[in-house]
Amino acid sequence: xxxxxxxAAAKKMKATARKSRVTFCYLLAEAIDTLNKLY
Length: 39
What we know:
The chain has one domain (about 1-39). It contains 2 helices and no strands. It has helices at about 1-15, 20-30. The chain is flat.
């Protein structure tokens, strides 16, 4: 599950030259359906 989430987050950020770790973590949480645990 996490591997697929990492791939999804990386794919969304592929076009971005400057990658933020916070943005990556947010996208990962969104991809693996744990975004509600961040709030």
